[in-house]
Structure formats: C-alpha cells, structure tokens
Amino acid sequence: MQRGRRYSATSSPLLESWTISTSTMSQSDFMERDTVLVLSDDDKVIGSASKKESHVFSQANPRGILHRAFSVFLFDSSTQELLLQKRASTKITFPNVWTNTCCSHPLHGMDVNEVDGPDDVMAGTVNGVKAAAVRKLFHELGIPLEQLPVDQFKFLTRLHYWAADTVTHGEKSPWGENEIDYVLFVTVPTKDKITIKPHPDEVDDICWVSQSQLLEMFADKDLLFSPWFRLIANRWMIGGDDNNGKEGWWDDLDRTMTTDDFCDYESIHRFDPPWEHLGGAGDAGPLFDD
C-alpha cells in the first residue's frame, strides 16, 4: 500500500494550510467535499463517499454507508481529568451534544496519508487515523500539532456502532452515524501545556471533568450526549460495579497509556443504539441484536 507523508513536528504548515483553505467553508460545504473511507463489515477500505452521502439515512440506505471514524480522549495526567466538547449548534449531525474531546473521520486524498490497512491495525500503529486526529484537533480545538505529536496517541480498540440522529432531528431524521470507530487516548502532563482555541463553527463549549463529574453530567436529563461517547465511557472507560467489577481504562491512565493490557486490535465490537436512536428516515431497527 502506498504511504503518504506522516505528520512531524516540522510539518505543521500542512495543517495550517488545510485549515486556511477551509476557513470560509460551511458545514454543508464540508459534508459535500470531504471524502470518507467506505468499509466492509470487517473494516476493509472498499471505496469512498462524500461525508454527506455516508451520513444520510433513507429507505435505500436505512443506516447510511458504513465508514471509518475515530474518537479522541484527551486527559490531563496531573488531575486525571478528561476534556469534553459540546458540538456546535450549527453542526448538521448531532448538534448541541456533549461528547469526547474530538470525533471525526480519516479522509481520502489528504497530504498526509490517513488510510490504514489491516497490517497497521494488527500492529496497533494506525498512523493514518492518528494523523487524522491531529488534523481535526487543530481544526476543531486549535491545538497545535507540536503539542500533541502522533506518537503520543494510544490506539485501544474498534467498535462498529450506528445511530439515527432522532433526538435532535426527530424520529424520521435523515441523518445518522454508521461507523467503525477507532478509540484513541492521549495525555498531557498538565492542561496548561496545550493551547485550546475552539473553532466556533465546530465547538460551542469545552470543559475538563473528573469521572465523578462526568457521571453527574450523564445523570442530568437536561444535557444531551453523543451515543458513541456514552457507549465507550460506560462500556470501557469507567470501571466498578456497573462494569462487572472490571477496571476501566480511565481508572489507571498510566497502565492504559504505557502497557497493552487494555488493547484489543483483533476485535470489532458491535453495538446497536439505545432505543431513542433507532429509526430515522430509513426506519432502521436493530442490526446486531440476535
């Protein structure tokens, strides 16, 4: 497989030029222009589609088109706090929801190659996904490349989930997600070591939270959360009685970041959404429920 350039501490102008070229683009422009990686059920790249096409739920494609995504979780090591963002009200899919630090897609045709193959996944390197994460952290949150180098990211596992955006767009929502999502953790010594300047078209708010604060937010019925964030947090990040007594990834960040104890590169964990995210314009029902 042909490899493109990889981000390094001296290649930040690539990110800056990409951001400058998109600074006047609307959310609709991004949906039409960006080309996501279309996947088979076993996470092989089999084609491409616009971001818009892949996220449209219809009778022809009840769950849109399966594509690759990533979810970044950025922690302050000194306090063990996680950085959350509230997706902007102008976002087309899942606006106004709280979610993990950054969620987006690797793309075809980028200056730095963002396409990983099976060997990259099995080795746990996935530098294409990590490069996409660096690009989007800069775009959405203004975090400069040199503050979060690619080699600091830890790839943990993959999950295939889908969800109709019925909470914000109604029960016949034409929008939703159908993704194989790569989970990435990254830490900084202290939060004052990074620069954060959220893009107003991408992010309405940010906050750093402890585990207990996040659980309080989850219990607040007035707050909306992305379904993928809730799934990852409750399934793997937070241990204890609600997770069959198992230790969560967030319970011991040093172990998570410095060992492979929690890494699973072989499995693709598959989840149907909670009931409130079933349906949409394609009337989609459970996909994985036996």
Provide the descriptors you would attach to this structure in a database record.
26% helix; 23% strand; 9 helices; alpha+beta; single chain; 290 residues; 10 strands; 8-stranded mixed β-sheet; two-stranded antiparallel ribbon; globular
Structure in words:
Helices cover 26% and strands 23% of the residues. With 290 residues, the chain is of the alpha+beta class. Strands 3, 4, 5, 6, 7, 8, 9 and 10 form an 8-stranded mixed β-sheet that branches. Strand 1 and strand 2 (45-50) form a beta hairpin.
What's the multimeric state?
single chain
- Tell me about the largest β-sheet: 8 strands, mixed
Distance between the termini: 37 Å
- Helix content, binned percent: 25-40%
Give me the Rg, rounded. 18 Å
Strand content: 15-25%
Weakly predicted, low-confidence segments: 1-14
Write down the overall geometry. Answer: globular
Number of helices: 9
Which structural class best describes the helix and strand composition? Answer: alpha+beta
The strand count comes to 10
Q: What value does the average pLDDT take? A: 90
Series of H and E elements = HHEEHEEEEHHEHEEHHHE
List the helices and strands and how they pair.
Blueprint: H1 12-22, H2 27-33, E1 35-39, E2 45-50, H3 51-55, E3 67-76, E4 81-87, E5 98-99, E6 102-104, H4 118-123, H5 127-141, E7 154-164, H6 166-169, E8 176-188, E9 203-209, H7 211-219, H8 227-237, H9 253-258, E10 268-271
Parallel strand pairs: 3-8, 7-10
Antiparallel strand pairs: 1-2, 3-4, 3-6, 4-5, 4-9, 7-8
